Amino acid sequence: MADENQVSSLMLYRTPRVGPMTYRELLRVFSTPEMALENLPALMERAGRKPLQLYPRSRAEEELNTLASLGGRLMIEGDSDWPDLLSFDAAPPMLMVRGLPHLLERRAVAIVGARDATTNGCRLAEQIGADMAAAGWLVVSGMARGIDTAAHVGALLEGTAAILAGGVDVPYPAENEGLYEKIIMSGLVASEAPMGAAPAARHFPRRNRIVSGLAHGTLVIEAAKGSGSLITAGYASEQGRVVMAVPGSPLDERSQGCNSLIREGAFLVENADDVIEILAREAGVKSAERLGQPEMPLLESVDEVKLPTSAEHSRIRERVLSLMGASATEVSALVHQSEEFPRLVHLVLLELELSGEIERLAGDKVIRIMLPPRKRREQ
After folding, report:
1. CATH number for the domain that contains residue 340
2. Which of 74, 243, 330, 362 has the most beta carbons within 10 angstroms of its beta carbon?
3. Number of domains observed in the structure of the chain
4. Based on the domain organization, do 274 and 333 belong to the same domain?
5. Structure-model confidence comparison of residues 252 and 218, the more confident one
6. How high is the pLDDT of residue 306?
7. Last residue of a domain, one of 291, 321, 339
8. What does the pLDDT read at residue 147?
9. Tell me: the pLDDT tens digits for 177-221?
10. 15, 20, 53, 150 from 8: Cα distances, Å
11. Do the domain assignments include residue 221?
12. What is the pLDDT of residues 106-142, one digit of tens each?
């Protein structure tokens, strides 16, 4: 039988309109996923949204039971072995994992690059992957063909982490099914997608933020302009991680993305020694700075959360909106300036977010969605 907390957590995160930041805010307000699920339909109704269909309990239980039957487990933020690096705002609050999740405790580097990579590019990715793994680093990538595959192969004996865009039980691409099985034996495969889900184009950018998020730095080997690998590098930069690239000939389109990254400030590397030296010097400082930031505090724990009355709701809603302008505002400042009970302010902010009137941003900030005035009809 699936654990009740895991069932409730998965139901909450799989419910439509509940992304990572909304999920965390719901837990901050309601303390437990069970209480959040109990109150979410009423929140949606008061936000003026259509009736909410919670993710079915039966499907959550089926997912967890299937995962357990494959020897996998659901890792949830707050677990003792949850990776410290997965603490940025847009990070998934849970991952489905097969293999050896304890490897996520290692120092990690992401290696990504072109799918249609050159022979030399794949050879270099495999060599750097092997050298990094031998030096005790976990090599993280997305198991795509080309550079990703080569990096995994190089690090296979010491353990590597493959992050999938589809379900953790769906090897992709199909040609990598054998590699997938080997990684499960000596490394790990992880995904936030539902069990059995086939990867779609929109899933890959979400996957990429996890690849970069699990690593102290991201190395790009061969990437054309507009490549998905550059998206991963962009996420790494946003997350405060180190970005590195291998330079290449300006005559090769597959090197243009890497060369652009270097021009924009990415570290130029040629081998694993370069990567290790840069990460030792840069990643430690960035990681210490990030881990030193205070965590978003939970509100006071209560056995029952009562939604505000209509009069309270209207008063707090108008007060909160009046304090917001066209620029981002810190939630803590709104709570302080509103002079209302913090829990009630957070409840109203959740309703405004679900109604589409505000947007939640990184750094525990919100911004009001300012709609342009309607044009007057011509007489």
Report:
1. 1.10.10.10
2. 243
3. 3
4. no
5. 218
6. 65
7. 291
8. 98
9. 999 999 999 999 999 999 999 998 889 999 999 999 999 999 999
10. 11, 15, 14, 38
11. yes
12. 999 999 999 999 999 999 999 999 999 999 999 999 9
**CA atoms 356, 361, 367, 372: torsion sign:** negative
In a shared domain, residues 130 and 16: no
Structural domain that includes position 33: 4-69
* Domain contains 56: yes
Confidence of residue 359 (pLDDT cuts 50, 70, 90): confident
Same domain, 234 and 342: no
pTM of the entire predicted model: 0.86
Q: How far apart are CA 208 and CA 43, in angstroms?
A: 32
Q: Are residues 211 and 354 in the same domain?
A: no
Q: Assess if residue 61 is contained within a domain.
A: yes
Q: What is the 3-state secondary structure (H, E, C) of the chain?
A: CCCHHHHHHHHHHHCCCCCHHHHHHHHHHHCCHHHHHHHHHHHHHHCCCCCCCCCCHHHHHHHHHHHHHCCCEEEECCCCCCCCCCCCCCCCCEEEEEECHHHHHCCEEEEEECCCCCHHHHHHHHHHHHHHHHCCCEEEECCCCCHHHHHHHHHCCCCEEEECCCCCCCCCCHHHHHHHHHHHHHCEEEECCCCCCCCCCCHHHHHHHHHHHCCCEEEEECCCCCCHHHHHHHHHHHCCCEEEEECCCCCCHHHHHHHHHHHCCCEECCCHHHHHHHHHHHHHHHHHHHHCCCCCCCCCCCCCCCCCCHHHHHHHHHHHHHCCCCCCEEHHHHHHHHCCCHHHHHHHHHHHHHCCCEEEECCCEEEECCCCCCCCCCC
